[in-house]
Amino acid sequence: MVERLKLSTMKRISIIILGLVVFSANGYSQNFLDAYRYSANIYSGTARFTGMAGSFGALGGDFSTSSVNPAGLGTFRANDFSFTPTFSFNNATSKYLGNSGTDNRFAFGIGNIGLVTTFRGTGQSDKTSLVNFNFGVGYNKLRDYNSNVYTTALNTTSSITDQFAADANALVQSYGLTSPDMLTIPDPYNSNLDPFVNYGTGAWPAILAWNSFLVDALTDGSFTSPLLVGEAVYQSNSISTKGSLGEYTLSFAGNVSDKFYFGGTIGIQDLYYSKTSEYTEDIVGSSASGFQNLLYRQTLETVGSGYNFKLGFIYKPIQRLRVGVAFHTPTFFDLKDSYNSYMSSQFDVGYADAYSPNGEYDYSLITPYRFIGSVAYLYQDKLAINVDYERVNYPSMKLRDGGDGYSFHVENNEITQTFNASNNIRVGAEFHQGALYFRGGYAFYGTPYKSGYYNDNANTTVIAAGVGLRSSTFYMDFAFNNITSKNESFLYGNQDVVKDTYKQNQVVFTLGYRF
Predict the structure, then answer these.
(1) 507, 500, 497, 477: which is closest to 80 by C-alpha?
(2) In which element (H, E) is residue 464 found?
(3) pLDDT digits (tens, 9 = 90+) for 441-480
(4) Which of 52, 96, 186, 286 is the most buried (most CB within 10 A)?
(5) How far is C-alpha 150 from the geometric centre of its chain's CA atoms?
(6) Strand, coil or helix: what is 370?
(7) Nearest-CA neighbor of 150 among 24, 80, 240?
(8) pTM to 2 decimals?
(9) What does the buried/exposed string (b/e) look like for 488-501 if buried means 16 or more CB atoms within 10 Å of the residue's CB?
(10) 117 near 146, Cβ under 8 Å?
(11) Do 484 and 500 touch, CB atoms closer than 8 A?
């Protein structure tokens, strides 16, 4: 290993050159976790909508219903403009090997901006009269990805270098490597890059580990960790994510005799997601190999857009009761991932590091379809209560059209094996006295993971409250909600489970104008 370390400076120069080469990786890095991340909505929008935990499917009268049940826009009797900034404080607690780590992140965003225009119809003299016909255009936020998570603990039984060695041994079996040096990152001007293109992104942890001296080769051609059994390390992992999923909506809605409302939405979704993970290990005491510490940094950025269609209806069997139904087609996404990795090590005899190429990959995602059923009750024009039931068919998610022709059969099979349909419930209430409005809500988003899988209890809950002041022309609404979710994962391989709890507190403010 000492002789290999002496060559590290020359090697780093060739690695930097290699990073400038156009790299065409296969699509093996996309998986069922990506599909679920970009398919799960936690509805947000105006402060009124947020203050009732997004429970508005049968009530209508708020722009954010364009992303839930567009028939709700049919209840508008005047033109309406709304604008909603949001402030979120995100806190995460991570438990690993009996230790807890915490971190937080503050973010500002736009929850909603929308305009509804209304046109009078033929009146309401009979049961088929079109009272008004409305159009809506604007934006609603569907998901906030901002968070910081910090995991740390003392590990006396395992190191990530064990996983690197296992990955390297798997490469030997999969590609028939005849020499460990075949994992050495080559000078692109003097070597054939094809083997490394064919390895794909999944092979780069082992390749970087070999070039950072974090795996050693045995005489039989296999690989092993430089650490010895019983040597302990302090492990930490910092994950920073940011971004959001939003939807631009173009909607129409109609009101028939103040009894039946119908509507449709063309939704254009805009996605940005960024993740940076920094994993470190520091030796406790000293190691016989001279190992001191390592750093493994991974970055991922996903951008893309997609389209969907929504159709909804609301019916009033009696004046106080409203029943709503809505159907959402899948969103058809075109996405691009950009990613790279960096690894470094420090030994008593020196320092080494290695870079992966900058990878890009295009692919498509089809999200699940949704069905929403709603019931609302209005009492004495003072109190309104709404209940939404939403069913999301997560097993129907599909990854498609890899940029290199990859079909994603394996990943799509994992999706059907891992997920069930999810059942979500949202309950909201609004009470007003004169111009003052009080709101509250609760939402439960059931985990889609099948029983027996990790995260089969990873439900998400929303608790919300709000207040508003409204006149015939202007209105101001405030809302606060708390979103709590859980996630189970592994730092590497199938070692000890990391259990994360996320709490997002949002403050939402809407200014609106009717004209």
Answers:
(1) 477
(2) strand 460-470
(3) 999 999 999 998 889 999 999 999 999 999 999 999 999 9
(4) 52
(5) 18
(6) strand
(7) 240
(8) 0.89
(9) ebebbeebbebbbb
(10) no
(11) no
